[in-house]
Amino acid sequence: MTNPLLAPSPLPYGLPPFAAIAPAHFEEAIEAGLGEHLAEIRAITDNPAAPTFQNTAVEMERAGRLLSRASASFFTLVSADASEEIQALETKLAPRFSAHQDEIFLNRGLYERFAALDTRGCDAEDARLVEEYLKEFRQSGIQLDAAGQERLRAINSELARLGTDFGQRVKEGMKSAALLIEDRTELAGLAGDEVAATAEAARAAGHDGKFLLTLILPGNQPALAALENRDVRRRLFEASVGRGSGRDSLDVTGLARTMAGLRAEKAALLGFANYAELVVDLQTAPSFEAVQAMLNRLAPAAVRNADAEARALAETAGHPLEPWDWAYYSAKVRRERYQVDEQALRPYFELERVLTDGIFFAATSLYGITFHERNDLAGYHPDVRVWEVRNADGSGLGLFLGDYYQRESKRGGAWMNNLVDQSALLTARPVVINTLNISKPPAGEPTLLTLDELRTVFHEFGHALHGLFSDVTYPNFSGTNVPRDFVEYPSQVNEMWIMWPEVLANYARHYETGEPLSKDIVDRLEGSRLWGEGFATTEYLGAALLDLAWHTLEPGDIPDDALEFEVRALAAAGIAHPLVPPRYRTGYFQHIFAGAGYAAGYYSYIWSEVLDAETVDWFTEQGGLTRANGERFRTELLSRGNNRDPLESFRILRGREAALEPLLKRRGLE
User: Fold this and answer.
1) 339, 350, 358: which is closest to 513 by C-alpha?
2) pLDDT at 595
3) Is the pTM of this model over 0.70?
4) How large is the average pLDDT for residues 462-477?
5) CATH code for the part of the protein at 346-520
């Protein structure tokens, strides 16, 4: 049978024909793509003509189409619907991809052609393309001698192998740590639909008649806020935070230690004091010291707020608190002090209505785009839905795929990725995916969201808009291909529309009665906005500072015990709190150890939030949900990708540099 990946997809917008793709097709297409890409690189380096922008930089951007097409589909399945066959292939191919990257960016002839380019006559986007390639060559080790490059290749290959192993173990660990409940009475406090979802999860896992509390990726599990049985809360909490560090086949702490050592060695090879400095060199942050200074400024205030919250919780509980009590009594304080019951709000946040009357409504109001479900187009799994997105004039913009439900073949968390990058050079329009892990209800039952899930759906759609609105020439600059500490900014901005009056009134209606969420409840939600920020900020900063602790180690300083290192690192950073563990512990810190691209960069969420808080103020000052505001945000920022300095795009939008004060106010850290 003909391999459908070997030729461009005939489907609209280049959507891969998933129904026709078998697992064996991936290896054949990727191997062919690797070979074809290297042949295209050789054609550039062997060109006898003098280097020009067209015969070097533009040809570099044109190269690798088969590889890009095959790998985009493959890695979508790796993260969202991985069979054992796909996982085995990932293990096999990860070092091949690493070696391929080195083959290109340690190619002396290719580098010399780029170094010889004179960009004085180029426009700004063309000049930036050359500048970005030269930076990537330097970061990849082009300046090293033969022995140094050989060692770097070995390090990169081993990191790719270890990262793949880490990610696969974390996914398996999340599945095996799920808490099986025999007696329904132990689930007291959960809503009826949540109990039904746990029964469905148990049935799917082969435990008919029982109940399965599945885990999400972060340590703090949603059910902890509702479960009345304290022992069940303890068991769920311990299962969650103990993942990946149980000294068994799913223990990943040894992998983390080895990866930290290899990254430290890589940084030293490339002339950096540590891996964090190497990473920050490619980000919008001016220096690693600036990142440290910001986090160190926030940590003491966050811990003070967490302490104040802990005192209120202990008073409500009437007994000494344990970490598994926090979410439960925090919800109770919110109910008693602010008259806000998050569980009672879930019927107002039904997924379908949130999508169509909330997220899509806000996007149409701001940008004029419309969404048209394409039932004639299929994704990679029956749960995946496909929408065609059209501009205000009716022209096609791209495809948006939504994959919202949890399943065993999907890794934890929530993310956005591209199947097709927008590029004027390649006449390609974007195809983007949002992937979440919401518990799937039994057939015919509604999907009711928690406030946190509601926030996540809006957040990930902000990433989708960044990809859909891309309007750049070169695929290298497309959409979310921006510095890691800028990529979260547009997605965080999109969260502002959750509680915007026009948007909220349009989607927040009881799924059975159609009754709108009352203004009184909305006011109480706003009044309780800062409650819990001490916990949330401390939890987040714990993970960000733990990440930096792992990546500021020198090659000879790798600890023997990862969990002991965690304790010391958090204490040294002033963020250790006995009741607030970091959002991610080493044993399931997938962002930094499983190839998600956040190693030494988890700080980027709060770094981006500085820009986000400023932009929310800008929208508010300019009148909020208007087409004029949407067009300016789209034109000056979302459409730009990385074709100019992202901070310049922000300055043009805001009219000045960002200040920290709006973020401090938002998080109650003034």
Assistant:
1) 350
2) 76
3) yes
4) 98
5) 1.10.1370.40
Q: Tokens at residue 365, please? A: 């109001």
The residues facing 373 across adjacent strands are 387
The burial of 169, by beta-carbon neighbours within 10 Å (0-12 exposed, 13-18 middle, 19 or more buried), is given as: buried
Chain centre distance of CA 44: 35
State the pLDDT at residue 247: 76
Burial class from Cβ neighbours inside 10 Å (0-12, 13-18, 19+) for residue 613 reads: buried
Residue matched to tokens 């495809």: 399
Give the active site residues: 460
Which fold is adopted by the domain 4-105+107-140?
Glutathione S-transferase Yfyf (Class Pi); Chain A, domain 2 (1.20.1050)
Angle, nearest 10°, between helix axes 108-115 and 23-45?
Answer: 60
Q: What is the pLDDT of residues 228-249, one digit of tens each?
A: 999 999 999 999 999 999 878 8
Q: Where in the chain is the domain with CATH 1.20.1050.40?
A: 4-105+107-140
Predicted confidence at residue 1, as pLDDT, reads 65
Q: If you average pLDDT over residues 567-572, what whole number do you get?
A: 97
* Residue count (the chain): 670
Contact predicate 545/570, CB 8 Å: yes
**Residues in CB range of 34: below 8 A, 6 or more apart:** 67, 96, 100
Domain with CATH 1.10.1370.40 in the chain: 346-520
CA distance 21 to 19: 6
Q: How far, CA to CA in Å, does 596 sit from each of 112, 433, 592?
A: 31, 16, 6
> 30 with 93: CB under 8 angstroms?
yes
| Gap between the Cα atoms of 166 and 415, Å rounded | 18
Phi, psi torsion values for 642, nearest 5 degrees:
-115, 25
Burial of 217 (0-12, 13-18, 19+ CB in 10 A): buried
Q: Return the minimum-mean-pLDDT range out of 117-121, 359-363, 577-581.
A: 117-121
